Amino acid sequence: MILTGESAIKIGRVRPIRLILALFAIVLSKHHREKLLAKYGGTYREALPNFLFAGHFCNVAEFDYYQTSHDPRVVPTTHRLFGGWVIIQERGAPVTAFELERENPFDAITLNTAFAEIDRVKQFCRLKNGKIALCDYGCQATLGALRKISFARNE
Question: Which residues contact 4 (CB under 8 A, 6 or more apart)?
């Protein structure tokens, strides 16, 4: 991520080293096999490319989700460049665990979703309007959690 002025530029990463490590892990551990297939696809043919290019797929999903929903619980993703390899979001300020606990835009039902990663402080920031918003929301589990709980469009 590159922070400039009032924008955050997110570049989708390719993870070849992590893919090689994941291949070793799934050979050695049934738990790792099940986790990889559950998170990235039901078959190896589907899961391995999804894992390798997860950054790109998440960028595209973040842009599409925000453009169609304008969900106030997430950081606005305003531009998609190079087919989604690069996206631009509104820049936010870091929040503390105490601030997130006090002002979390999600309820406990949403936070219990597997793989959603929306219980981590680093996934949130404070926007210019003063509200705390989720800044990393492109993985399918997180999008599923966002869709599970509706929001008021007239905030």
Answer: 91
The CA-atom distances, in angstroms, between 38 and each of 21, 104, 115, 137, 148 are 18, 27, 9, 18, 19
Give SS3 for 117: coil
Stated pTM of the model: 0.77
* Residue 48 near residue 39 (C-beta atoms within 8 A): no
DSSP letter at 139 equals S
Q: Which residues on neighbouring strands pair with residue 4, listed in sequence order?
A: 7
User: pLDDT (tens digit, 9 = 90+) per residue, 67-96?
Assistant: 999 998 899 999 999 999 999 999 999 999
8-state DSSP, 83: G
